[in-house]
Amino acid sequence: MKFLSSVKFSIIILPVITTISLIGTFIEPNKAGKFIYHSFWFEGLIVLFSVNISICTIKRLKNITKKNIGFLVTHLSIIIILFGGLLSLITGKKGSLMIYDGHSSDKFFVDKDTSIQLPFTIKLNDFILEYYDESKGALQIRAKGETEYKKYPINVGSEIDYKGAKIKILKYVPDFEINIETHEVNSKSDNPNNPALQIEVSKDGNKKEKWLFAKFPDFHGKDSDDIEASFVVGGGGRIKDFKSELEIIENGNKVLTKTIEVNNPLSYKGYKFYQSSYDDQNLSWSGLQIVKDPGLVFIYIGFVLLIMGVVFIFYIKPML
Questions:
Q1: Terminal-residue alpha carbon distance, the chain
Q2: Average pLDDT over residues 222-249
Q3: pLDDT tier at 319 (50, 70, 90 boundaries)?
Q4: Which of these, 8, 88, 104, 107, lies nearest to 43 by C-alpha position?
Q5: Cα radius of gyration rounded to whole Å, the chain
Q6: Which residues contact 110 (CB under 8 A, 6 or more apart)?
């Protein structure tokens, strides 16, 4: 008991906890959580350190003076932070959920084999994508035989290097029209009624110009070139932001609706729903990260007290 309440014990156990935590940062998150942070032995180390700090603080209380208030506050803050950390380790929950437009779920997954039940149902009303250059769309390029296109924003004059070829964007018109007499291409209006894109493809010393039509992708017939290019509008550009309109349903009743995005989660009954990802192959899916962390409020309180204690020690105590 005497050794447990000594500063020597703190000097031994604190580097051990720090070293283990550092090792955990280099391990895959799910494995680190399972074998380190949520293990009984790591939680035991935290408990021992908390007991050590608590006993040391209590022993000093009988000699407390105004000058020692900073000491008391900083030690109390560490105890509160450790308590919050333990509470998070023992009762905290964290996982993910991929959910489809219009569908709902009452559980989320820690890994592919482990799920956690929610005390309510979460529904995805709509998955919303916002694009750069949405009015112009995007240039899609792929090599012959590939199944997926790579998308590029429409910037007239820009050049794209793609697998030995150079693709230059020469001209964009929102409403394609060609003068029969002069053969000049113009735009009938500023509205994207018939958007078209002129590109130049250079490869192996050969250059070829072509027009791509968003509404008529097969206008020139099947592309026989090594590099296939097409022009898409309305959702073809670079993705600027992605959001999810979520709905909380409890006992059959809708209780809350919120559109979330990165760094703007939905909170309900201690659970937070973060926008974390989407499926670029199926843009009707939304990836959510779900967290329940009851110890977080204690950690915040502890850090505030820690700052107050340090300020007292370095600035107020010298004046006293």
A1: 35
A2: 77
A3: confident
A4: 88
A5: 30
A6: 30, 93, 94, 95, 116
Burial 36-49 (b: 16+ CB within 10 A, else e): bbeeeebeeebeeb
Spatial distance between the Cα atoms of 269 and 255, rounded to a whole number of angstroms: 12
Q: Alpha-carbon distance 198 to 212, whole Å? A: 6
- In this prediction, residues 46-60 reach a mean pLDDT of 82
**What is the edge-to-edge ordering of all strands in the sheet holding 138-143?**
150-153, 138-143, 227-232
Cα 62 to Cα 57, 58, 216, 232, 306: the distances in Å are: 10, 8, 85, 76, 21
Report the C-alpha gap between 243 and 261 in whole angstroms.
5
Structure tokens at 180: 């029969």
pLDDT tens per residue across span 66-88 = 778 888 899 889 889 989 988 98
Written as one letter, the residue type at 138 is: A
Single-letter amino acid code for the residue at 224: S
Tokens encoding 55 = 């006993």
CA–CA distance, 282 with 247 (Å, rounded to integer): 21
Section 148-168 average pLDDT: 86
pLDDT of residue 223: 60
